[in-house]
Specification:
It contains 6 helices and 6 strands; from the N terminus they run αβββββααααβα.
């Protein structure tokens, strides 16, 4: 059965070559103006995990290692990429299913391989793009699944939603 340690090692193997620094269940990529955060969260109710993305704007407040839930802009990977099949025989699985160890039946090696591939192909490009203000603005223009604080909306000159 997949453990938190196994998931952490698989994610670390994909992120470390791109300059991400790990601290606990969080990975950080830094620039002068931004910090991107990837967080591996385990459900308290079983062997279900979540990949949470956060973007911290240093111009709002300086923080060396913000937690994902403190970030000015944040979302879950499964919100950005809901596509995939809930049934293994019907095609590539959804990331939410791959991270649901209890409910989604899958060979452990294949599961880790698919999670690693997801991190490399989906998460790394988004997290690297979001380490600049221009890149973050582009991500926000392309996706409406992000939660954005009022301070970040003001700093990024985004319209304030109702």
């Amino acid at each position: 059965m997949i453990t938190t340690r196994m998931l952490t090692q698989a994610i670390q193997a994909e992120l470390k070559p791109h300059g991400f620094q790990r601290k606990g269940a969080n990975w950080y990529l830094f620039s002068e103006t931004m910090i991107t955060v990837l967080n591996l969260q385990k459900s308290q109710y079983g062997a279900t995990y979540f990949l949470n993305l956060g973007f911290w704007l240093q111009q709002i407040e300086h923080n060396d290692f913000p937690r994902e839930y403190q970030c000015h802009v944040r979302t879950r990977a499964s919100s950005l990429w809901p596509e995939g099949s809930h049934r293994p025989e019907a095609g590539a699985p959804r990331i939410a299913d791959l991270l649901n160890i209890d409910e989604y039946s899958c060979d452990d090696g294949k599961r880790l391989e698919q999670i690693s591939q997801f991190v490399a192909e989906k998460l790394v490009p988004v997290l690297k793009a979001g380490v600049t203000l221009e890149g973050l603005n582009q991500l926000l223009a392309e996706h409406d699944e992000f939660q954005i604080t009022l301070a970040a909306r003001n700093a990024l000159k985004l319209p304030v939603s109702d």
